[in-house]
UniProtKB/TrEMBL annotation, chains A, B, C, D, E:
Residues 100-218 form the MotA/TolQ/ExbB proton channel domain. Belongs to the MotA family. It comes from Clostridium formicaceticum. It comes from the Bacteria. This is Chemotaxis protein PomA. The gene is pomA_2. It is a multi-pass membrane protein. InterPro entries: Flag_MotA_CS, MotA-like, MotA_ExbB_proton_chnl, MotA_N. The keyword Cell membrane applies. One of its GO terms (biological process) is chemotaxis. The chain crosses the membrane at residues 7-29, 35-53, 147-168, 180-202. Keywords: Cell membrane, Chemotaxis, Flagellar rotation, Hydrogen ion transport, Ion transport, Membrane, Transmembrane, Transmembrane helix, Transport. One of its GO terms (cellular component) is plasma membrane.
Length: 261, 261, 261, 261, 261
């Protein structure tokens, strides 16, 4: 579980509810109509904007923003180093067995391509095409969240307009003006909260997560091609480390030197 | 029929109407003036912004967002594979007859160019120019919808201003303030609803549809040039599959293996 | 006259006036102060943003959005074909006389360069530089209209603020609040209407018109260089047709075939 | 003095003041607090956004938007032509004396580089680096004005919020509501006016001025390198004229022909 | 300490507080709920949008906007000149000792790479990768501040909506409307002030600071590679000066000439 995302949403809601309870009660804010218009309207318009298959895929991708990324780039370099050592000592064919132990599907597929003796140019091509599709899919996921982030406040305003129009039509009893207006404003409140605490920040986290995943996959592509080219495992490791930010690289080095010492 | 687009609009309207009927009646919202200002104003300004021919073309293109795309990329690859086999076995001239059975106009035209013995460079040129024009036309369609998506709320606000000004001029009877203001706000309601449930989401779906159509046509161009070059149908198929997303590619492969087994 | 632009503006105004007259009278909307602040302010700020010469040029260019484009690309291809035939039969020098009959100034200038025996590289260079200046000038025209489109609502709001401030200062007689507020809102109404029915849509139409003119001039450059290179008129025609959208190209072809048959 | 910029600001203010005086008095609008919050806040935030040195430089650059550009591109071509003639007749070293008569600092510096026998590649490098720095500095000047153009309305709104909050806290005497609200709105009025009549249009004029200056300097670089290469003054002039818009080029040509005739 | 940033914020606050105290008291503005919703909500949503590690890093980077940049580009050129002289006279290995006196970590690391006899191509590669990571990190820092700059007004509005809804629900005592509304508006006031005096200007200053730091590091990379190539210290200095703006370059030259004289 990614604590940041979940804690951010929960703590944000706590702050908002604290503000609500300081001067009123939460029950006032549970307005079924408002929820229907904002959430129903946003989701309906999203389905006008995107085909069903893409929306479902986006939901799967969004769940990533909530799940903790377990595979660190350094672990991938470690895995590739292991594969490179196996290939060096026992030949490329020995990778077939090793591939079974590889958890990452993309890396496993790449290893199988090497074992099958696929032409290096084709290996690069296939893996990079797949990378491009992964990137495209992530971008669509972000796009859907950003679309929802702009639709939610719009439907919030539409709901508030409906509330105001309904109230203004029947101005018989002045004492009902206040409560009716309060209800009308709740829809705008929902739209703003959904957009600013959920959709827009999630779209941003997805962008960052996508960048990390692309980096991990680029390391894999580079590593796989180097293994296929029969490069020295030590040199492969150095090459892949260039993909890491200097800070992590330095940590790795210190750890290594510790081991060597 | 593309269920997503139509269902999205209908379900969105149901949510909005549910919100309306919870506190009022739909009849209040049927205001001829408001409809005239928002829809009339938006369409008039669209005609100032775009020539008539482009607006009509955009309407035709928009209808695509409502129609289900029947031709899947995998079917195109299948068609091209059939053509490649015919060309291989019976020669390029035999494609003339085969071309008659091809449904897609773009593909048919490409086949006829090959049959006519057009220079490969010229074939690519002609097809890619046509592709560029298709893309351009799609972009204009989106552009018109986006323009309408920004004009509708603007004319909604203009209508509300008119309503407010008319009301404020004659503040004799306080009891009419409410209903007059309600009527004034209906125009803003219309503008927002049209923009956020119709124009903006439709522009987005059109963009996605355009991308799919361009992909299909790119597969055709690549396939046609490979057929003309006399490449092996099996190799052509592999080449074209690289255009498909990995997921669909895997499905195809499994199906094939099932057939082979 | 370009009917689309003028009809769009007039019909749009009719819709807006219909809305006004449904609940009030047009006379209320004729407020000299509002007109002075919105139009005067917008024009003044435009002169701060752009030098006088550019604003005048923009007005000339904008008038194009109102005038019907008479020269179709197919007519240009026809003209060039005629010139190519003359050059073929009677030599490049014979073009001097033919050039006098050419209406388009740009084309005429190009023909004179050829007649003068200018180096082909220099001809291309001179014509393309001129093309770049035309494009630049069109972009500035659009830029001025877009600037006005964002200034008009801003000065509309400034005018409304002035109206509100003046009204609020003297709240002696409650019966004047409504009419004063109505007058204040008229300025916002003017700003919005000018921006959304006039400036922004006109900027867009200018962009499309500019694209068409650039296309026409590109066809001329390509044609002139082909004539100078002594290419076959028939081949020149085919080459230039590649600049046309497929639909128009097909129409031309059918017409031709009709003539030939 | 650049009449356009100054006249635009003054005439714009006249329109606004005419609107003010039609329904109130200018004195109402002289509110010290409002001026302090809008101008003080905008300038303070600008200093948070930009270092002091850059803000001062931007002010110097902005003053250009008020000053009339005296050096026309045609005059520069004329100057360079004179230098080219001197270099041709009396040798490059004779330029040292001629350089003293050159007003433009950039051109003078370039001439001195040539006189010093600097390598042509290095001359181009040095001058183009300087050009890049000039462009960078102009962009920062525009950036500061644009930042102020978005800060001014924001602080206008902040001031209005303060005014409203102060008023709402002490609603004892209903007769003070109007005047207090009027005062609150004055801050928004200031912010809008500053942004739309001053900052945003000035940023735009600066952009156009920068483009003109860069063009002039590019002509100088090209001319200087041609002089150093010992090209014919006549040919240099023709080459530099290609930088001019066709309209001015034609005027020059007609004048020349008049002289020759 | 960077006076501009701190003074800008403090002076901005003074102007705002002066405005507040002119018509009310600062105590009214100390509303715990408002502060909780705006600051709490903004920070929570920022944690949804960015992982914890990046937010912490952004805070470290932001502190740079408050700290005075002590190392001027001219000092770096001076340092590199010293290193170049040492390398020239005593050989590359003598740099090891000299490196200890180098304050900048990046420069020191580069010197050590040279001392270790790393291949020049690899030195450039390693340093430029590190430069790219520094740039990336700065961009993320700006991105976080910009995100906060758009979240703060959004949560300000959410807080105001809560205040209005709570107030409207209980319209029993008209005398409480004013004060309740005042409290509601305070949240919007906080959001606007934080965004426009703090987050958005700070993001901008960070961008400028980042540009300066990248320039300094680029000078170092160029200098280190020149030292490694054994170039003449005098020539290295000239080369590096091309990175400086002309104004500073001129100052340096005058100082030098003064020294020489």
């Amino acid at each position: 579980m990614d604590l940041g995302t979940i804690a951010g949403i929960i703590v944000g809601l706590i702050f908002v509810f604290a503000g609500i309870m300081a001067g009123g009660s939460v029950i006032t804010y549970l307005n079924l109509e408002s929820i229907l218009i904002v959430i129903g309207g946003t989701i309906s318009a999203t389905f006008v904007a995107y085909p069903l298959a893409k929306v479902l895929e986006a939901m799967k991708i969004t769940s990533k923003a909530f799940s903790k990324e377990k595979v660190e780039p350094r672990d991938i370099i470690h895995s590739i180093n292991g594969l490179a050592n196996t290939a060096r000592k026992e030949g490329l064919l020995a990778l077939e067995e090793a591939a079974e132990g590889v958890e990452d599907e993309f890396l496993q597929k790449g290893v199988m391509l090497i074992v099958d003796g696929t032409d290096p140019e084709l290996v690069r091509n296939l893996l990079e095409t797949e990378l491009a599709f992964v990137e495209e899919r992530h971008k669509e996921g972000q796009g859907i969240l950003e679309t929802m982030g702009s639709l939610a406040p719009a439907f919030g305003m539409i709901g508030t307009l409906i509330g105001l129009i309904n109230m203004l039509r029947t101005l018989d009893d002045p004492s009902t003006i206040g409560p009716s207006m309060a209800v009308a404003l709740i829809t705008t409140f929902y739209g703003s909260l959904l957009a600013n605490l959920l959709f827009i920040p999630l779209a941003n986290k997805l962008k960052l997560r996508s960048k990390e995943e692309i980096l991990r996959k680029e390391i894999m592509v580079e590593g796989l091609l180097s293994i296929q080219a029969g490069e020295n495992p030590r040199i492969i490791e150095e090459k892949l480390k260039a993909f890491l930010p200097p800070k992590i690289r330095k940590e790795l080095q210190q750890k290594e030197e510790g081991v060597e010492a």
